[in-house]
Amino acid sequence: MKNLFLLILLLLCNYFSVAQTENIPEMKTQKGFIKIDFLSIDMPETSITSESNMGFSGIHYNLFLNKSFYTGVGIYGAVTGERGGFFTLGINAGYQKYFNEKLYIDTGFHFGGGGGAGAPDGGGAFILPHFNLGYDLKHFSVHAGWSYINFFDGGLIKGNQLNLALEIPLDFKYSNYKNSEINFSAQFLNNSSWKQETIKTSFLVHFNNLKVKSEGPIKGNTIRLAGFEFGNYLTRNWFAFLKVDGAYSGIRGGYMDVFLGAGYHFYFNNNKTNILAKFGFGAGGGGGVDSDGGFLLYPDISIEQQLFNGVYISLNKGYLFTPNSLLSTSNYGFGLKYYLERNGSYAKEKTFNKGIFKGIEVILKQDWYFNAKRMTNPNEDMHQMSLQINFDINKNLFLAGQTSFANFGNAGAYGEGLIGAGIKTSNTSHTTFFTQVLAGAAGGGNISTGEGLIIKPSLGIDHKITNTLSIRSALGYVKAKGGSLSNTFVNFGLKYNFTFLSME
């Protein structure tokens, strides 16, 4: 009788184990790649006589829709010439066709908006088609060819040029968004398609201060910045990062910088205290800051202390400067950082109790500001392209980050970098309602934002088209502190959503 009882118990345990494992969402793979490109743009004759070419460099992330067609988003910034602070945001669409295992063509189209640095960018809208010949080197690809740029909404920047590009494959694992906030024990996940080593990732929201040391009209000023940093670990210690900041105080609104870089992570005190050494390079300028052609270097060191599981407070000290020291600043600040182990069920140096599927929403939309207030020019409507990324705290609360650049309405240099939070209804039906409040830095394009601090509350609706795509619309209000921008706005766009596995 005892043996029969044990047999029944083992059969029941096996049944529930198999049932739970079968219910674990399937791991899916989205093929994609990072692209970094460069083109040298012949600038028109304006107030700067015999102006040198503007070196224009972009970073993009594209998703393959099938084996050949891809789409994605990209941001460009000036890195050489005389227009430091010139930035754009846009969408990509393209096609790749291989002739053999190595040689291929890449043709595509980029549509975006932006400008700055006093350049003749008009409303900011531009097109950038290309036709390139590429060579696949297995771990990365290079290609080059013809491209054409045209700031067609009243701008003067247009022409043909050679472009060079580097592509690095970067796929990601995901599950359907309907699985958001579902959790499973680590034991069951180890018997599923998610059984692989986790990838360490970090998110940092920070406030930085640039103390200007170089000669010029803003020498001695402290530029106050708000921004975020995304880090992805390549080994236990080495990581790559993307950092974006915008000014909200200390100078006229409009300064922005974007950095790519790498760092080394030192662990102390049972991983509760960290020291990180980083070095980045990128583009920056605007708001009256003379950054020459826009290319900036960024060495930095920071110390972090754990507050509670996965959350750290960070203090940093570094420098930000142009290679010729035309702009030289001392950089210091603080932030709140969150570490997570994702898309796997085990790690070499730690154990997990469970995994939870967390939702991510990527929203590309077009904002329409009604009668946007200008500093000198007559008021008129202003349009901008916006990219927003939401991270779900739970089924109803989310954190948000957004960047935007004007593309119509005679304000090509205007841009925004915002963070915030929101509330939404549960995603149990095809229609979801939400409200959010964003705040941060904005300026440029003669829009009256004072020193750059704005706040943007809104409410809206999403309607699901497929498991990953929804259409989106919202109504809101934007108000600048210290400026006269005070307008209602509407926006329309598309939302792409998915979940990733986070281990705890």
How would you sum up this structure in a few lines?
It is built from 2 helices and 27 strands.
Task: Explain what you see.
The protein has 504 residues and is mainly β. The chain folds into 3 domains: 31-43 and 52-169, Porin (Beta Barrel), CATH 2.40.160.20; 212-342, Porin, CATH 2.40.160; 355-503, Porin (Beta Barrel), CATH 2.40.160.20. 5% of the residues lie in helices and 62% in strands. The protein contains 2 helices and 27 strands. It has helices at residues 2-23, 186-189, and strands spanning 28-30, 32-41, 54-64, 69-80, 87-98, 103-115, 126-136, 141-150, 158-169, 172-174, 183-185, 199-212, 222-233, 238-249, 256-268, 273-285, 295-308, 311-321, 328-342, 354-372, 380-392, 397-408, 415-424, 431-443, 453-464, 469-480, 486-503. The strands form 3 sheets. It has a 17-stranded antiparallel β-sheet that branches. The chain has an 8-stranded antiparallel beta barrel with strand order 2-3-4-5-6-7-8-9. Strand 25 and strand 26 form a beta hairpin. The longest helix has 22 residues, at 2-23. The protein starts with a helix and ends with a strand.
